[in-house]
Amino acid sequence: MNARFAAGDRVRVREWYPPGHVRTPYYVRGKRGQIERICGTFNNPEHLAYNRPDDPRVLYRVRFTQTEVWGRAEHPSDTIDIEIYEHWLEPET
Amino acid sequence: MSDDHDHPHHPEHHLASTYHEKLTAAVIELLTEKQLLSPEKLTAAIDIMDTRGPNLGAKVVARAWTDPEFKKRLLADGSKACAELGIDVGSLKLVVVENTPQAHNVIVCTLCSCYPKMLLGIPPAWYKSKAYRARTAREPRKVLHEFGLDVDDKVAVRVHDSTADMRYLVLPMRPAGTEGWSEEKLADLVTRDSMIGVAQANEPMAV
Amino acid sequence: MHDLGGLPGSTIDRTEHQNDFWEQRVDALMRALGTLDPPLVRTDELRRAIEGIGAEAYDSMSYYERWISAITEVLLERGVISVNELSAKIAEIEEREAD
Fold first, then answer.
1. Is the pLDDT of residue C55 over 80?
2. CB contact under 8 A, B46 and C25
3. Full 3-state SS string of chain B
4. Domain assignment of residue C50, yes or no
5. What is the pTM of this model?
6. What does the pLDDT read at residue B16?
7. Within a domain: C14
8. Which chains contact B through at least 3 pairs of Cβ atoms less than 8 Å apart?
9. Does residue C70 sit within a domain?
10. Is C2 domain-assigned?
11. Complex ipTM, two decimals?
């Protein structure tokens, strides 16, 4: 598996708004987080949703602070982990 | 109505079934007629949910509480560890997240309502509700408070949004006063809600 | 309108209830279709079809009503069943029920 990122890497979610089926929630687009783990390689749901041929992509769990996502959080240590596909991520800087 | 369980290709003998009930029957009958779906396969899929439920998750939790090496394997690869206990979760990719004195975990699927069905069975209606899906991502402590759980200031709340292929199980903390308990007795303390993260496991006195 | 994370929400209704039998059938149907090789309806297709239902329908339909509508839509799209077959079958079912 050719994973672009490793656990611990700091990443930013792209600010894309493509049409069709996506599994990257609005609330993390453009936000910065840290790779919590590599989940493995899976078929791109954006393709599967239209029964298109296999398009394997690396999937990560990315951890965000709630403060980063919402601007304010119930508690500064709170976090939210989301599974995001590699093509949605870029290095933080 | 209940004997359709054995004959899934016959429609329910309801008076005035709703449009969606008729649609369901129609789709199933058409697929069966086209031999794309066998009645046996459908019945098996209905029946298998009878064998899945929180008691399976509780068994996994109780083993993790009593066997530190199993717990390590569970946290590394949830599905594989379940298989060790004879629990076949099919294609489910299970990630187990551990509650500790420093962190409390809670699971949500904001985009739809993904849930580890092949382990825990069908999710409760509230888990699939718009209110739970919307609010848990942003105000988990408030949601937990509504469920009767107040998370201490010294503890971080970690929300897990099941957005892709993984499914989640919370490993609740083992309650105090359970030293020397058997796995069966420990499993009785583990509730569905504690494995979703909206509750702790039951205290010994509550049983 | 399915992408709900962070949107405002009401108090969570924690009433528990068993799914009706037809709902259990829909759930089983989706699992059965998903395990065929290749799947007749993929989880991702189901989700995409539910998302495309439209805000009003999404809000007014119950969980499994959305599921069976979406499953039907995907099967129609894929040409597995036709609109005519479906109408005919529903009419047949209604006739049976009238007896």
1. yes
2. yes
3. CHHHHHCCCCCCCCCCCCHHHHHHHHHHHHHHHCCCCCHHHHHHHHHHHHHCCHHHHHHHHHHHHHCHHHHHHHHHCHHHHHHHCCCCCCCCEEEEEECCCCEEEEEECCCCCCCCHHHHCCCCHHHHCHHHHHHHHHCHHHHHHHCCCCCCCCCEEEEEECCCCEEEEEECCCCCCCCCCCHHHHHCCCCHHHHHCCCCCCCHHHC
4. yes
5. 0.91
6. 55
7. no
8. A, C
9. yes
10. no
11. 0.95
